[in-house]
TrEMBL record:
Record's function text: Catalyzes cyclization of the linear tetrapyrrole, hydroxymethylbilane, to the macrocyclic uroporphyrinogen III.
EC number, as in UniProt: 4.2.1.75
Tetrapyrrole biosynthesis uroporphyrinogen III synthase domain ranges (all copies): 27-264
Family from the record: Belongs to the uroporphyrinogen-III synthase family.
Xref: PANTHER family: UROPORPHYRINOGEN-III SYNTHASE, CHLOROPLASTIC (PTHR38042)
Name used for this protein in its record: Uroporphyrinogen-III synthase
């Protein structure tokens, strides 16, 4: 069996490192084939205005470690140009607001936030995560947080995210009358090197083995389909040649609506979760 790890390099390396040694003894190989590369994008003037007025929002939500990184890069630039009392007062506002009103999608994102906050403000903040309430670290977990569930109509929140990401979170809250602003601080592109990695795999004997593909977002699925198309593998029969591990039931629903049924849901991408699911597939 071949497990195709499609996580971005900065996230997928940890997964592969933990899995490779454990799975080799079970005759499962790991192929790193990132479908997404995260790159910083230019923050628009209208979004800079949102970041300058964080006190307008009841909560600021960070959806990934990269969102935290790019946000604080902006804060660092803002801090660098603080040359008079008004600007220094704004920095104090940043510190007070971020110390009390922030939510992270998961513990790794929260850890990244705390590290960058301490670097910028020499103080450890508090930040809420779904896992603190025994909830999954995803959109569904965020929506089940009491802090989010209890938001009243016309309350304003700000989501720091990547381009085209977290539409479920935004749309669900807007349907409840919550005013949702977003700032896109990075975008997700297809890594050019991955096409050659897949070409080498496609031409190898390993391609004949059972193949399990990890899909963690709709964007990753779209890039995967594009990749299959380039190798004439996009038809329904070819798609059935892969087994898909997908993060969350809503992604599984999208695949099944497109006629793909070899789909299994995982609630997180922790190495233990992935390993258990792969071993269950191997024994199936």
């Amino acid at each position: 069996m071949i497990f195709i790890n499609t996580r971005p390099l900065d996230r997928g390396n940890n997964l592969s490192r933990f899995l490779t040694s454990d799975l080799q003894s079970c005759h499962i190989q790991v192929l790193d084939l990132p479908l997404l590369e995260l790159v910083a994008c230019k923050i628009r003037a209208i979004d800079k205005q949102k970041l300058a007025n964080l006190d307008h929002y009841q909560y600021i939500v960070f959806v990934s470690e990269r969102a935290v990184s790019e946000f604080f890069n902006h804060v660092a630039n803002f801090n660098h140009v603080a040359k008079h009392k008004v600007a220094k007062h704004n920095i104090a506002r940043y510190k007070a607001i971020l110390n009390a009103n922030c939510i992270a999608v998961g513990q790794k994102t929260a850890t990244a936030f705390c590290e960058r906050f301490q670097q910028n403000f020499n103080h450890l903040p508090t930040i809420l995560t779904p896992s603190q309430c025994n909830l999954p670290e995803n959109n569904e977990g965020l929506l089940q947080l009491d802090a989010i569930k209890n938001l009243q109509a016309n309350t304003k929140i700000l989501i720091i995210k990547g381009n085209n990401g977290r539409t479920l979170l935004k749309n669900t809250l807007q349907q409840r009358g919550v005013i949702v602003d977003t700032v896109d601080v990075y975008e997700r592109i297809f890594p050019i090197a991955s096409q050659q990695i897949f070409a080498n795999f496609y031409q190898s004997a390993d391609f004949c083995q059972n193949k399990v593909v990890l899909i963690t977002s709709i964007t990753a699925w779209q890039y995967w389909q594009n990749l299959l198309t380039k190798f004439d593998l996009a038809n329904a029969a070819a798609k059935q040649g892969f087994v898909y591990l997908v993060l969350q039931a809503r992604i599984a629903k999208v695949l099944k609506e497109q006629g793909v049924y070899n789909v299994h849901v995982v609630n997180d991408v922790n190495p233990t979760t992935i390993q258990q699911k792969l071993l269950s597939q191997q024994n199936y």
